[in-house]
Automatic annotation (TrEMBL):
<dbReference type="Pfam" id="PF00480">
    <property type="entry name" value="ROK"/>
</dbReference>
<comment type="similarity">
    <text>Belongs to the ROK (NagC/XylR) family.</text>
</comment>
<keyword id="KW-0808">Transferase</keyword>
<keyword id="KW-0418">Kinase</keyword>
<dbReference type="InterPro" id="IPR043129">
    <property type="entry name" value="ATPase_NBD"/>
</dbReference>
<protein>
    <submittedName>
        <fullName>Glucokinase</fullName>
    </submittedName>
</protein>
<dbReference type="InterPro" id="IPR000600">
    <property type="entry name" value="ROK"/>
</dbReference>
<dbReference type="GO" id="GO:0016301">
    <property type="term" value="F:kinase activity"/>
</dbReference>
């Protein structure tokens, strides 16, 4: 029997599962986030999906890992923050759940920090000791590696709140309660509201869309749509200033970028490099800007590595 690990990455719309054998994903699956269900109900479905994956071979399950989009106490495996897509997650003892249902240990980590570790050990950050990871999309997630160790801090938010740093002190209140966050100025959830507030909205092709995401924003910008071009530039500027702040704070060897929007990396990375050279104390010659090498499975590979580090 092969010793196997199962990692679960909880996304905003999908939950990804992966079977890991000796550091490689050998099978995967995904299910809907289904935010109408409680986290406890979702765990039942996740357990069924895990058993389905395990039934496809002769496997000996040795451990589990959850990459979760919230504040997580890595030491105890408890989720500390409420998250609207997974109601009640903060009330579940995942150590007991893993032991009761599968008889194994579990590692639970913030999803961006887990993805950072996955990229460090199996992707674009291999061989580095100081890294910043930024994921762009529905929100803006960040993770930080300092001197070869994931940054966590006293309250387990260390390195994770780059998307909730203030970028516009005269901006609107973010859904986190802070003022003018990177997310409230440049993420998918804020984009439609920002577009509709523009006087150009009625004459833009963006007006025909129910929800504006980065895919259609960048596509319409490419066709020359004026508002799409304006909003694209706004987002690029906000992301660049966020990256500059992260570089000033953590002085990494590399900044790794993830998220589906990195299909437009040929637009995004040159813009950020230009902004770095213009506004940062550390220019683009001294920090590498790279696209994530494990965009689908970094979180799963990250919790796989983190389980090895846990003390039991």
């Amino acid at each position: 029997m092969e010793d196997i690990f199962i990692g679960v990455d909880f996304g905003g719309t999908r939950i990804k599962l992966g079977l890991v054998f000796e550091g490689k994903i050998i099978a995967d699956a995904n299910i809907e986030a289904a935010s109408a269900l409680t986290f406890e109900q979702r765990l039942t479905d996740i357990g069924l999906e895990m058993n389905h994956l395990l039934s496809q071979g002769s496997y000996n399950l040795t451990g589990l890992g959850f990459a979760f989009p919230g504040i997580v106490n890595f030491n105890t495996g408890r989720i500390l923050s409420k998250y609207v897509k997974y109601p009640g997650a903060e009330n579940i003892d995942l150590n007991n759940w893993a032991e009761a249902n599968f008889g194994v240990r579990i590692a639970v980590e913030n999803d961006a920090r887990a993805a950072l570790v996955g990229e460090w050990k199996h992707g674009a950050g291999a061989g580095s000791t100081d890294l910043v990871l930024v994921t762009l999309g529905t929100g803006v997630g960040t993770g930080v590696l300092v001197n070869g160790a994931p940054l966590r801090g006293k309250n387990f938010v260390g390195g994770n709140l780059g998307g909730h740093s203030t970028i516009n002190f005269e901006g609107s209140i973010c859904n986190c309660g802070n003022i003018g966050c990177v997310e409230s100025e440049s993420s998918t959830w804020a984009l439609t509201k920002i577009a509709r507030a523009s006087p150009e909205f009625s004459t833009s092709k963006l007006a025909a869309l129910d929800i504006i995401d980065f895919k259609n924003l960048f596509e319409l910008a490419e066709t020359g749509d004026n508002l799409a071009l304006t909003l694209q530039d706004r987002c690029l500027k906000v992301w660049s200033l966020c990256v500059i702040n992260l570089i000033h704070a953590y002085d990494p060897q590399k900044v790794i970028f993830g998220g589906g929007i990195m299909k437009s990396s040929h637009i995004i990375l040159p813009y950020i490099k230009q902004m770095l050279d213009k506004h940062s104390w550390i220019g683009s010659d001294d920090v590498d800007l790279v696209v994530a090498a494990q965009p689908e499975h970094a979180g799963i590979l990250g919790v796989y590595e983190l389980l090895k580090q846990k003390n039991y």
